[in-house]
Each structure stands twice: as C-alpha cells, then as structure tokens.
Amino acid sequence: MRIVMFAAVFFVGGCTSSGHYEWQNVTTGKSQQEFNVDRAQCNMAAIEKVKIPGASCTAVAKPDCPAGMAGAACNYTNASSPDQKCDYTAVNIATQSQEDYRVSCLQVKGWNNLWIPNPTP
C-alpha cells in the first residue's frame, strides 16, 4: 500500500509544470528600472523598521583535564576560548519579519510576485 501511495505522489509531482516567479506591476505597468527603485526603497524601509538582534549565546564549560594530563599540557589544551551554544530563534524570526515587510511594501506599491510557467515544447 505504501509503495502505491509513493508511486502516485511521485508521478503526480512529476507532472507539475516548470516556471519561475517574477515581480510584475500589472496595475500601472511599471518598468524593471522602477521595480529596482521600489525594491531598494522597500529594502531600506525593512532594515530601518525591523532590527535583527544578535544571537543569544551562553558559554559552555569545558571539561576538566583528561586523565594523564596535568600542568602546562592541560592548560594548553583548555586555553582556547570557551565553547558557546547560541540560540538563533530571535534572529530567524526577525529575518523572516524583514522579508515579510519587504514583500508587503512592494505589494502596496502595486507589485505582485507572479508564477510564470515556462513555455511547453
């Protein structure tokens, strides 16, 4: 049964048409050059409005010296900076929020990211 479902999903997925997304302004017919200006303005606004914080990192304690190591050998092995464990959750959320702001800004200016299918041979 699982093989049949996999095969059905594989064949249906293989029949999708290829293409690409393209930003177009269908309401006013703005040019590519105008899109570049609008996109730059939206990028700057997104950076100003949505700040990306630094990752939240904490130092992870290094283990004691391994058996048989002492003195200078142990100090040399453990002399590098402590390992860090970082949480990038806030960074990822802010990055996605910036992207959402950029897209909304472009949409307000009349731009839509439309799917353009490739011509069939």
Which characteristics define this entry?
single chain, alpha+beta, 4 strands, two-stranded antiparallel sheet, elongated, two-stranded antiparallel ribbon, about 120 residues
Quick recap of the structure?
The chain has helices spanning 2-14, 32-49, 71-77, 89-108; strands at residues 19-24, 56-60, 83-87, 112-117. By secondary structure, it is α+β, with helices and mostly antiparallel strands. It has one domain (18-61, 69-117).
Structure report:
The chain is α+β, with helices and mostly antiparallel strands and 121 residues long. It has one domain. Helix content is 48%, strand content 18%. The strands form two sheets. It has a two-stranded antiparallel ribbon with strand order 1-4. It is elongated and about 70 Å long. The relative contact order is 0.23. Mean pLDDT is 80; it is low at 4-13.
What is the count of distinct domains?
A: 1
Q: Tally the beta strands.
A: 4
Portion in helices: 40-55%
SSE arrangement, N to C? HEHEHEHE
- Shape label: elongated
Give the strand content.
Answer: 15-25%
| Poorly predicted runs of 5 or more residues | 4-13
Strand order of the largest sheet: 1-4
Task: Supply the number of helical segments.
Answer: 4
Oligomer: single chain
Main sheet attributes: strand count, strand direction, barrel closure? 2 strands, antiparallel
Structural class: alpha+beta
Average pLDDT level: 80
Radius of gyration: 26 Å
Distance between the termini: 35 Å
